[in-house]
Automatic annotation (TrEMBL):
Its cofactor is Mn(2+). Pfam families: Arginase. Pathway: Nitrogen metabolism; urea cycle; L-ornithine and urea from L-arginine: step 1/1. The keyword Membrane does not apply. Mn(2+) binds at H98, D125, H127, D129, D229, D231. CDD domains: Arginase (cd09989). PANTHER family: ARGINASE (PTHR43782). This is Arginase. Its EC number is 3.5.3.1. The gene is arcA. InterPro entries: Arginase, Ureohydrolase, Ureohydrolase_dom_sf, Ureohydrolase_Mn_BS. Keywords: Arginine metabolism, Hydrolase, Manganese, Metal-binding. One of its GO terms (cellular component) is cytoplasm. NCBIfam families: rocF_arginase.
Length: 309
């Protein structure tokens, strides 16, 4: 059984619309800690992180939105993640928009470098989040965290200096892609990142794609950070997200991915990002994210309750 810590990251400044700041509260109300305890795990809720006060930061490009706020969150979450990664517990970061991964992924990368172990990242998302500050068409920083964590240039303002350790793009796998910006696509193709779009899932099945990657993590004795974006899932069943793209993972594809991750025993940290409870329908998406998390922590198909809608 796992020793799990929950840390809220109520950041919404990286997203184009407000509401993700309510995410951690929704996870608590829906009963994330209770669900994980029911599976036999020890769960400690550390409450919500607070962003650093960075003082004024001049944005290198004028279209970037809320850069000082996102930098403040990045610095705070980087420190929290590095501390938690050094400890015995498995952290779940309850977001918050995807900009929170700028701090969590880089914090875990720094801790992995101290241990001399390779840090792997599984990015379950409709988007690659591989824009640089320069290439971002929208200026919304939740579209940039993977580029930042992989050491792309131009991000020094986020941590106030260079990254202590970046993620080797060869150790990154994106699954669920269906919306990538023009320049972002070029950056992604030029990188070593493994990127599986929805067509790859259709043709090969998510199990094949995921197991291929997990075999690499295991062979390298790697640590594995999973970043689960609500928009990985089809918006028909997960409407509470500001960036819906049709044609996402189905209920069973998403659960199967979580079940395979659980079986692998490789996951060492988890982000739950982009839940926007303001856009939800009677808590549907929050509950789905809880159920997916429960699958990742050992709930099995046969444990599923019968429910009326
Ligand atoms: Mn994302």
């Amino acid at each position: 059984m796992a020793n799990i810590v929950l840390l809220g990251a109520p950041i919404e400044a990286g997203a184009g619309r407000r509401g993700c700041a309510m995410g951690p509260a929704a996870y608590r109300t829906a009963g994330l800690a209770e669900d994980l305890r029911a599976l036999g795990h020890t769960v400690t809720d550390l409450g919500d992180a607070v962003p650093d006060d960075t003082g004024p930061i001049e944005a290198p490009f004028s279209h970037l939105k809320a850069l000082p706020t996102v930098a403040g969150w990045t610095r705070s979450l980087h420190r929290h993640a590095q501390d938690l990664a050094r400890g015995p517990a498995l952290p779940i970061y309850m977001g918050g928009d995807h900009a929170l991964s700028m701090g969590t992924v880089t914090g875990h990368a720094a801790a992995a470098a101290e241990l001399g172990r390779p840090q792997f990242v599984l990015w379950l998302d409709a988007h690659a989040d591989f824009n640089t500050l320069e290439s971002s068409p929208s200026g919304n920083l939740h579209g940039t965290p993977l580029a930042f964590a992989c050491g792309q240039e131009g991000f020094d303002s986020m941590l106030g200096g260079p990254l202590p350790a970046s993620i080797d793009p060869h150790n990154v796998c994106i699954i669920g892609l269906r919306s990538v910006d023009g320049v972002e696509r070029d950056l992604l193709r030029a990188s070593d990142v493994t990127a599986h779009d929805m067509r790859a899932i259709d043709e090969h099945g998510i199990a094949t794609l995921l197991k291929e990657f997990l075999n690499r993590v295991a062979a390298a004795n790697g640590l594995l950070h999973v970043s689960l974006d609500v928009d990985f899932i089809d918006p028909e069943i997960a409407p509470a997200v500001g960036t819906t793209v049709p044609g996402g993972a189905t209920f069973r594809e998403a659960h199967l991915a979580m079940e395979i991750l659980h079986d692998s025993g490789l996951v060492s940290s988890l982000d739950l990002v982009e839940l926007n409870p303001f856009l939800d329908i009677r808590g549907l998406t929050a509950r789905l994210m809880l159920d997916l998390t429960a699958s990742l922590f050992g709930r099995q198909v046969l444990d599923r309750p019968t429910r009326s809608y």
